[in-house]
Specification:
Dipeptide-binding Protein, domain 3, 538 residues, 22% strand, 28% helix, globular, alpha+beta, eleven-stranded mixed β-sheet
Length: 538
């Protein structure tokens, strides 16, 4: 199937507008009662935690985007920020970003939502600092303070930080009730409450979950359906049978490529696709990967980059539903380049791979242990993907590869404990800017947790690469040409410098709906927010 490219028309202007303009409140506080009824959504994507302080994964944010409110939001199909729980937000000083809270808002238990809850929500993410949480997204913030019950102020590390307003729409932004959530530990999933369009009614993790419209909700996203039921399956084939038989109304994440092709010609259902910036890549643990020294480790990473055939993976494994990725920033995103294509080529080059290994004194074949996610967290084909990676690497005669799959809930814990020397990760964008594909992987103690930029080290790889000044430049400039030069340099350094990540593939969003289901196409936009409040069934 053909890929839809992202549109980033006027993105830099959109980012600038978010910081330069005061955001006006949208419409009246309370909309109509909605369309009623219920919709059942089927998925295979597992949840790590429904407490925002303990999750930074797609399966968890699927709920968080609908249970909680954020100060700001990006409406479906838009690229500019609009108010959610905030009435207005703006820079009040170069390093001060201030939001006024819309009055009269309540959590689903009746507690009022105030600036104190916002301060509490942000600070507890940092205090808990879960390895599976979003604390790294707040690296640009120095402090947050509730000035009064209706005003919250963020002090930033960089003047006019162009990305910070978008951070408030990400996994770091859900507002929780300070009377319910403990300050220093996670709340059990079944006990979470929020002030968003829907509330949690019953929760059987990764089996069946029921949500209903939050009667206390007074924001701009009134739900069109009274009840949302989420049904979990363990395999793509079971999810396919569910949508064909009518047991579910929507199948969303993740169907196998062969199942998608089959459903395109099935009766009673429709395959929908939307723009997306999902990327798949390999992470190298710089402390534990093979190699006797840093130079040998770099040579092994470079040799692997010379040896992979992305197009073969996209064609053989994903039937064209993914395409080759030659940068951590996917094509279609503003400021994207393709340095891995320029440096390492589009087809395997065993001679160059051998040359870099010999120059570093690496004995071959190099034994590699690569870990991947065995369940459907990154779709049902990760095993096929990494078997193909293994085949390609071993075909050069330079590597002996062992691959091993682990279920994601275990995987997410073990990978941050240095259990995996080389491992698979995927990424879904948090906000609409190239920075989101770079900063989370390049800042101190970043999301990948693979020691590229460890705090306290005197000889950090990110310092040798000179990454931090470039990140500062792209994050604080409102000039498109300045940001372009910084982004180009960052992407080039990732390919030719320390090479901590090896990009492989980029994909798009796919959902399958039964006839009569509406609103799903509208939410399949580049934000990767599944807006349950838009979905209805006639």
């Amino acid at each position: 199937m053909a890929f839809s490219s992202r549109t980033r028309r006027g993105l830099t202007l959109a980012v600038a507008a978010a910081t330069a303009l005061t955001l006006a409140a949208c419409g009246s506080d309370k909309k109509g009662s909605g369309g009623g009824g219920s919709v059942t959504i089927g998925t295979t994507d597992r949840v790590i935690a429904l407490d925002p302080a303990g999750s930074y994964d797609f399966g968890s944010q699927f709920y968080e985007n609908n249970i909680y409110q954020y100060l700001l939001q990006v409406p479906a199909g838009e690229t500019t920020l609009q108010p959610d729980a905030a009435q207005s937000c703006s820079f009040t000083k170069p390093t001060e970003y201030t939001c006024k809270i819309r009055p009269g808002q309540k959590f689903s238990n009746g507690d009022p939502l105030t600036a104190e809850d916002v301060e509490f929500s942000i600070n507890r993410i940092l205090k808990i600092n879960s390895p599976n949480g979003p604390a790294s997204l707040l690296a640009g913030m120095k402090s947050v303070k509730a000035v009064d019950q209706g005003t919250v102020s963020f002090t930033l590390k960089k003047a006019k930080d162009q990305t910070f307003p978008f951070i408030l729409t990400t996994a770091a932004g859900p507002i929780v009730d300070h009377n319910v959530f403990p300050a220093t530990k996670l709340l059990p999933d079944g006990q979470v409450i929020g002030s968003g369009p829907y509330k949690l009614d019953s929760y059987n993790q990764n089996t069946i979950v029921q949500l209903s419209k939050n009667p206390n909700y007074s924001g701009p996203n009134e739900g069109k359906t009274d009840n949302i039921i989420i049904k979990y399956e363990t395999t793509s084939s079971a999810l396919k049978l569910d949508i064909q038989s009518g047991q579910i109304d929507v199948a969303y994440r993740s169907l196998a490529p062969t199942d998608i092709v089959s459903l395109e010609s099935a009766s009673g259902v429709k395959v929908l696709s939307g723009s997306g910036g999902e990327i798949r890549y390999i992470v190298f643990n710089l402390n534990t990967m093979p190699g006797d020294n840093a130079a040998q480790q770099l040579a092994i990473r470079q040799a692997m980059a010379y040896s992979v055939d992305r197009q073969a993976i996209a064609t053989k494994v994903y039937k064209g539903t993914y395409q080759p990725l030659y940068s951590m920033v996917p094509q279609g995103e503003a400021f994207a380049t393709q340095p891995f294509k320029d440096v390492y080529g589009t087809t395997p080059n065993a001679d160059k791979a051998k040359s870099v290994l010999e120059a570093a004194g690496v004995h071959t074949p190099v034994s590699l242990h690569i870990q991947y996610v065995s369940d459907t967290h990154y779709g049902p084909s990760s095993d096929l993907e990494y078997n193909e990676v293994k085949r390609q690497l071993e075909e050069t005669g330079l590597f002996k590869v062992t691959i091993q799959g682990t279920e994601y809930t275990t995987y997410s814990t073990e990978r941050v404990k240095d259990a995996y020397p080389i491992f698979q990760l995927g990424w879904f964008p948090d906000y609409l800017d190239a920075d989101d594909f770079l900063s989370p992987f390049l800042v101190e103690n970043n999301f990948a947790q693979a020691h590229y930029c460890d705090v306290g080290k005197t000889d950090r790889p990110c310092d040798k690469d000179g990454m931090q000044p470039l990140l500062d430049k792209e994050e604080t400039s409102q000039d498109a040409s300045t940001r372009q030069s910084a982004f180009t340099a960052i992407q080039q350094k990732l390919a030719t410098g320390e090479l901590p990540y090896l990009p492989l593939l980029q994909g798009k969003q796919v959902a399958v709906v039964r006839d009569g289901v509406n609103g799903v196409q509208e939410t399949l936009d580049p934000t990767y927010i599944f807006r349950m409040w838009l979905v209805s069934k006639s």
